[in-house]
Amino acid sequence: GxxxxxxxxxxxxxxxxxxxxxxxxxxxxxxxxFWYRQFPKQSLMLMATSNEGSKATYEQGVEKDKFLINHAxxxxxxxxxxxxxPEDSSFYICSAxxxxxxxxxxxxxxxxxxxxV
Amino acid sequence: xxxxTQLGSHVSVSEGALVLLRCNYSSxxxxxxxxxxQYPNQGLQLLLKYTTGATLVKGINGFEAEFKKSxxxxxxxxxxxxxxxxxxxxxxxxxxxxxxxxxxxKGTMLLVSP
Lengths: 117, 114
Hints:
The complex is a heterodimer. Chain A is mainly β.
């Protein structure tokens, strides 16, 4: 089945630095990828939708200059948290939409736990 | 606009008992419906999905769900709970178009006691 690889699984960074999270579709081409943020014991909040070769579409309230998304190829999307602050600490999950099978599905990465100290 | 309501933030069952997790949706177009499971510090794993066709959908790990349009529901069931089923479960809906996003419910934590 479809597999999405997300790295790193955990990262600790100092306040003010930037962190890049990678999301790769391993056995399918993902023209669309999604980035979510999940607060403890809460549901997933969609941050942005990225389409290969075009600018990401950000949800209302998400700072596009802080959360930079690049989807330069059909198998790779990256999320860069710029000038991270402790309030950016969270669990970030990517998802890719695959077109295979009956209907279509959304495959999720394993998530990245970001801690900003 | 679409929305998902999951009744009960926590559901507790005994091992071997029936599992029933409730999900109701709101959608102005025929929905695609999904159930995902999340273990601590992990991403989401698809349990099952309904797109078209048969309304009773069977998924992995013995779970199944039935799409009931008249009740706008997509409840998840499993006849006999196992300790390994303890996790967070999310119901989600999309509008089935080529560019739609998923709308998630708030999740239900399933607790399984021996």
